[in-house]
Amino acid sequence: MSLGPLLVVSAAVLWSTSGLFIRWTVAGSGFSALSLAFGRDLTTALCLLGGLALFRPAWLRVERQHLPWLAALGVVGIGTFHVLWNLSMLHLGYPVATVMLCSSPAFVSVMARLLYGEPLTRTKIVAILLALTGCVLVAGKEELAGVEWTAGALILGLGTALAYGGFSLFGRKVARRYSPWTVLTYGFSFGALVLFPIQFFIAPPWPVPPQNWLWFGGLVLPATIVPFALYVAGLRRLPASVASILVTSEVAFGALVGYLFFGEQLREWQIAGAGLVIAGVILIAVTTRENQAPAS
After folding, report:
1. Per-residue b/e over 206-219, b at no fewer than 16 CB within 10 Å?
2. Going by C-beta distance under 8 Å and a sequence separation of 6 or more, which residues neighbour residue 226?
3. Of 32, 154, 157, 250, whose CB has the highest number of CB atoms within 10 Å?
4. Cα-to-chain-centroid distance, residue 262
5. Within 13 Å, how many C-alpha atoms sit on residue 295's CB side?
6. What is the pLDDT of residues 130-163, one digit of tens each?
């Protein structure tokens, strides 16, 4: 596996641990899904901003023409996505929300074709179908069968997938021009800004037990800052459509995390689904090794 796919898959591995830290942070605390999203984005932005201001102040400078792309990345791909993702989990349940999220590579591939001229190859289509089928199996047929598929549920799920894909689409535009730390500093700052007004309409999380702050720190550093940096570094080397397909491997790793840490049962079809997801990832990774993305 070449460096680009390796960076993205590494990001997916670390992202798959976010469920651990979210559960542990919320347990016994006053954090709601939306207050946790805001706290996560704001703390990440402040850490990145402080780090660059101290050690690489020059990296805080960006060209004015790129600010709209950085703002779109933060508002859509981070802030709006986190709100919609939390709402999807609350109203649709984690299995259904995950399946809907796995439709994101299809949107990204079509939009990347229109925006950047990335080819929509048979290999990409097959990899997307493998990943989506695998996600359905991993989610579990009982969980999916018990969901009422209303128009509102579909709109919420698809909106979440579109917002999720926005990070790859907007990130590709700036990933090759700036350090990943610069991209993330601006992205999370804009993401926190769009979430800030919502905090006036929800209950504050205080008080938070001391041990929960430890888990929150884990959510911010190994489950947010590091994987996002790895993913942006991967976007420097890969087409947005390829990166979005590779990151679906998070579903397979997430199922493994649930099994190891929470004792969640893995049935035969779920294991088969994880295998299909990984097969799609391997397929696109091997192809990408032979056909790297052209410089923009």
Report:
1. eebeeebeebbebb
2. 14
3. 250
4. 22
5. 2
6. 999 999 999 877 767 666 778 888 899 899 999 9
Rounded to whole angstroms, how far apart are CA atoms 269 and 205?
Answer: 39
Residue corresponding to tokens 């049962």:
265
Q: What is the per-residue pLDDT for 98?
A: 83
Taking only the tens place, the pLDDT of each residue in 173-216 is 999 999 999 999 999 999 999 999 999 999 888 888 999 999 99
Please report, for residues 80, 134, 186, 197, 220, the alpha-carbon distance to residue 194 in angstroms, rounded to integers and kept in the order given: 7, 33, 13, 7, 18
38 contacts 198 by C-beta, under 8 angstroms: yes
Contact, 235 vs 7, CB < 8 A? no
Average pLDDT, the chain: 90
Q: What Å distances lie between residue 238 and 43, 99, 211, 288, 289, CA to CA? A: 29, 24, 39, 8, 10
How far is the C-alpha of 81 from the C-alpha of 159, rounded, in Å?
A: 8
Torsion of CA 143, 163, 25, 194, to 10 degrees: -140
Top-confidence residue, 40 or 26: 40
Q: How far is CA 224 from CA 14, 40, 231, in A?
A: 8, 8, 11
Angle ∠(179,5,23) on CA atoms, nearest 5: 80
Q: Which pTM value belongs to this model?
A: 0.92
